[in-house]
Design brief:
The chain has helices at about 1-30, 80-90, 100-110, 185-190, 240-250, 265-275, 335; strands at about 45-50, 55-65, 65-70, 75, 90-95, 115-125, 130-150, 155-160, 165-170, 190-195, 200-205, 215-220, 225-230, 235, 255, 260, 280-285, 290-300, 315-325, 330-335. The protein has about 350 residues and is α+β, with helices and mostly antiparallel strands. Strand 3 and strand 4 (about 75) form a beta hairpin.
Length: about 350
């Protein structure tokens, strides 16, 4: 009987503590400062949503530590997400907006601000960070980020359901942080096209439409053994330069485009895509995931000539590329991609000039 009574008393005591903490938390939340923009912890952020009045919006969803998904479709650029989280953690209030400027700043925020929603993992029961039960995702902060101050050393922010805007800044950073809260999708896109190490490669197919005899496929046979297949006759090439092939395969470890050109004039872009591709590369990894890049020659600039003074028909520095399943049109640099834009004769044990 005494044992049951002790258990009941302990249970009631725990319930009272939980209730007291809940009430305290509720009152603290209610009294929370209208300038509480900074996060206490960025590690438990699960989702960030940002949108403006021009129908631009960005959703960043955390898949695992250091890995984020953009708008439920694309990998997000890690460095930009980390910079945003650092900003959210360190942002401080400099001062409230002066009364004389209050109305104008509020109107400006209503029209041009970026709305920011932050979701974090919280616990329904959290006792002194020692006992944490029932984790769930919760919307923890909503605020609006405006433009820069006249001195360009801070920006305007306003908590949701508040009429008191503040000037905020990030200690140690000279400037304003508004651009880090961009709702433009392309700012957050990972520029990567191929990120595959040699052990992860199952096969690579390289097609040269203008010279079909230059097309080939490299197959991973395991245990660092590879086959080179000529696509023109589907025959294996027994004698190839092993070192050149390994250098070619290692080139797919990290290949990125320079910029997206999805906003290019549609007529011009469609004309380029309808032309004959320069080189088509398809990489299939050991998990069965396939990625294809179609490249297109870029016309040389007016007035550019070679050493003999003849006009250059093509740009010697850059190519166009259709990537991500044809969804994106980008520009790439020969400097980065030359090592994988290799025709079949390059690997043969005979003198071959690539250019």
């Amino acid at each position: 009987m005494k044992k049951n009574r002790s258990i009941l008393i302990a249970f009631l005591a725990l319930a009272i503590v939980v209730l007291a903490l809940w009430l305290t938390q509720s009152r603290t939340t209610f009294r929370r400062s209208l300038s509480d923009f900074a996060l206490d912890d960025s590690a438990n952020v699960t989702t960030i949503f940002m949108a403006d009045k021009n129908n631009n919006s960005v959703k960043l969803k955390k898949l695992s530590p250091g890995k984020w998904l953009l708008n439920d479709t694309y990998p997000a650029q890690k460095i930009n997400v980390e910079l945003l989280l650092k900003t959210m953690l360190e942002i401080e209030v400099q001062q409230p907006v002066a009364n004389a400027a209050h109305d104008n700043i509020v109107k400006e925020l209503a029209v041009n601000a970026v709305k920011v929603e932050i979701y974090q993992t919280v616990y329904r029961i959290d006792l002194f960070d020692a006992i944490r039960w029932f984790p769930h995702e919760k919307l923890t902060k909503v605020y609006y980020v405006g433009g820069a101050t006249q001195s360009n050393d801070g920006c305007f922010m306003l908590m949701e359901n508040s009429s008191v805007p503040f000037i905020t800044f990030q200690p140690g950073f000279r400037g304003f942080v508004s651009p880090r809260y961009s709702p433009i999708e392309k700012y957050w896109r990972d520029y990567n096209i191929f990120r595959t190490t040699i052990p992860e490669i199952a096969k690579i197919r390289v097609e040269v439409p203008g010279t079909p005899d230059y097309s080939y496929e490299v197959r991973n046979n395991g245990k660092n053994r590879f086959s080179l297949i000529s696509l023109s006759d589907n025959k294996e090439i027994p004698d190839y330069d092993t070192l050149k092939l390994l250098n070619f395969l290692s080139g797919f470890r990290n290949l990125n485009y320079e910029a997206l050109l999805n906003d290019m004039d549609k007529v011009r872009k469609d004309s380029i895509i309808a032309s004959q591709p320069f080189i088509i590369i398809t990489v299939t990894d050991t998990a069965g995931v396939t990625k294809t890049m179609k490249t297109y020659r870029k016309k040389g600039m007016d007035g550019e000539t070679n050493q003999e003074g003849n006009p250059l028909p093509y740009d010697l520095d850059r190519l166009y590329a259709l990537v991500n399943g044809g969804r994106d049109f980008a520009i790439i640099q020969y400097f980065s991609f030359d090592k994988v834009l290799r025709p079949k004769p390059f690997f043969l044990r005979e003198t071959f000039q690539n250019k």
